[in-house]
Design goal:
single chain, alpha/beta, Conserved hypothetical protein from pyrococcus furiosus pfu- 392566-001, ParB domain, pyruvate-formate lyase- activating enzyme, five-stranded mixed sheet, five-stranded parallel sheet, 9 helices, elongated
Length: about 250
């Protein structure tokens, strides 16, 4: 791991960073920095679309700058915005306090619930997303007891999309490949992204399915429909097209 010294004036505070320090926490951090110095490097993004964005260490940079310092030690990482935000939240887990006004504007709901539409008014149309897991359009109670029917989940996706909420489908477990492909065709008009997986933990059923064939058919269909998609690792590993994984 290479540590580089960067000018604070060149760094950019992430606009979404959800942590804030109380007065007491600020003073404690200040005392620590004065006593031990900046012994823990911050993390800075070097990705072409997120260059110089601070991923982790916002509060330490702020206090360090307040103390009159002009540079900080950094570890550099090249991450797209999605991974950058995930890492930011993980790093912030045990430091500072949440700024709920910022954090509340970043969430995704993945559900099988019947009444998810009751919360649609809480979604920020710019940052939030609604998603459901789908096995087929006619999910049986035997496989998913007490969950919303496939038809109801499709209704919820359509409603969310009509209200300007980003939508995606987690297509797994795949029990019947033909039915899963039908889900894509049936929902393409109101689903923005598909995340396609396979079936695990049922060796006998899994052995009956030609996963390579399903993967190729799913990717071909999604490309024909012009949809964004992600092929999950367990299925991608079986694909005959090594170049296809994420679009």
């Amino acid at each position: 791991m290479k540590i580089v010294e960067r000018n604070i004036k060149d760094l950019i505070f992430a606009e979404y960073n959800p942590r804030r320090l109380t007065t007491e926490q600020y003073e404690n951090l200040k005392a620590s920095l004065l006593r031990f110095g900046f012994v823990d490097p911050i993390i800075v993004n070097t990705h072409k679309d997120r260059k110089n964005i601070i991923i982790g260490g916002h509060q330490r940079v702020k206090v360090w700058k307040d103390l009159g310092n002009k540079t900080v030690p950094c570890v550099e990482a090249s991450l797209p915005i999605e991974k950058e935000r995930e890492l930011n939240i993980r790093l912030n887990k045990n430091n500072g306090e949440w700024d709920w006004n910022i954090l509340a504007n970043q969430f995704q709901v993945l559900t099988k619930g019947e009444h998810a539409d009751r919360d649609f008014d809480l979604y920020d149309r710019e940052t939030d997303a609604f998603a459901v897991t789908m096995t087929s359009a006619s999910i049986s109670c035997e496989h998913e007891p007490q969950a919303a029917s496939g038809t109801r989940r499709m209704e919820l996706l359509k409603l969310a999309h009509s209200q300007g909420i980003e939508t995606w489908v987690s297509l797994e477990p795949v029990l019947w490949p033909i039915r899963s492909l039908h889900v894509i065709k049936a929902t393409a008009g109101y689903v923005d992204v598909y995340k396609v997986g396979k079936l695990n933990h049922d060796v006998k059923w899994e052995a009956q399915i030609d996963w390579k064939k399903f993967a190729v058919e799913a990717v071909t269909l999604l490309n024909q429909l012009g949809k964004k998609y992600y092929i999950k690792n367990d299925l991608a590993a079986l694909m005959v097209w090594n170049a296809i994984k994420l679009c």
